[in-house]
Write a sequence for this structure.
């Protein structure tokens, strides 16, 4: 019954490596036609007890049956997830406990066929890699908000569509990440890319990340590299180097020390300006509050 279980199939096949802003993909295939359409917002279907056809005179009995149906309905509703997208927050990796900087991801999911464009596991993979790779600059991220995009937003075909994604949805303080079934390469006709760090053209201070569902789990980290001020690079070790190469293996690629230094500066500037809000500060405050509250009765101030 959970809609997330009916999610589009994962894509693991080979895609021509289009000039892409993001890499880290060993070769997924182009978006296959969507999985069979999932019912739009299926209603909880309580198993109703067989109800005798109400005799003409039995107003009271009918009322009882109505009450019973309502109760059964409530029980069924309790068994259903209240919000089918809640698992994108509750079941994806949290900021590393040791991180002193924890930033929120606001996740915006397209809903092709009525189901999220990608799974909780896929989002978890992206966040897990980001938290591993950004530990070097003491940055951790976690999905704190998730929303379903309206059905008219699906594939992102051009610059205007990239702008439109965040026009009404961008807010300062969090990293906004959109997931689409297909992200067109706006520079190469017919090609698609796996991810992009996009600056809203009317106001380039506003920035967000768009991921295609074909992205490998390192693509969020690459785009976050851009978000934290990095251009593409030519360091062999770097995730920001788009040149095809065999070594080092993907598992060893990370950010070059010079890139780390640059990202630290951008990180601090973004915190100072409020572009990112450190959630770890709140967490750090809590224990102090709890300690204060935990003073035994009668203890002095
Ligand atoms: Zn890039």
């Amino acid at each position: 019954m959970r809609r997330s279980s009916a999610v589009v199939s994962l894509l693991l096949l080979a895609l021509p490596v289009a000039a892409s802003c993001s890499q880290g993909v060993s070769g997924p295939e182009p978006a296959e036609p969507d999985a069979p359409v999932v019912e739009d917002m299926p209603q909880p279907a309580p198993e109703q007890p067989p109800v005798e056809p109400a005799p003409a005179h039995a107003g009271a009995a009918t009322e009882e049956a109505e009450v019973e149906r309502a109760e059964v309905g409530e029980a069924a509703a309790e068994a259903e997830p209240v919000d089918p997208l809640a698992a994108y927050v509750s079941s994806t990796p949290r900021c590393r406990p040791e991180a002193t900087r924890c930033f929120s991801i606001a996740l915006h999911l397209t809903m092709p066929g009525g189901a999220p464009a990608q799974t909780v596991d896929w989002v978890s993979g992206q966040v897990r890699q980001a938290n591993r790779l950004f530990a070097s600059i003491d940055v951790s991220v976690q999905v704190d908000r998730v929303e379903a995009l309206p059905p008219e937003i699906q594939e992102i075909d051009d610059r205007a569509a990239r702008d439109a994604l965040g026009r009404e949805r961008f807010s300062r303080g969090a990293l906004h990440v959109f997931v689409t079934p297909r992200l067109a390469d706006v520079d190469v006709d017919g090609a698609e890319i796996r991810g992009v760090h996009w600056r809203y053209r009317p106001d380039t201070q506003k920035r967000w990340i768009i991921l295609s569902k074909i992205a490998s789990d390192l693509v969020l980290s690459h785009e976050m590299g851009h978000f934290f001020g990095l251009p593409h690079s030519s360091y062999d070790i770097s995730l920001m180097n788009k040149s095809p190469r065999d070594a080092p293996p993907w598992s060893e690629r990370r950010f070059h020390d010079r890139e780390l230094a640059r990202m630290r500066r951008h990180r601090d500037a973004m915190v100072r300006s409020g572009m990112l809000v450190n959630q770890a500060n709140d967490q750090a405050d809590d224990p102090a509050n709890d300690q204060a509250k935990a003073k035994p009765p009668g203890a002095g101030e």
The longest strand covers residues 140-148.
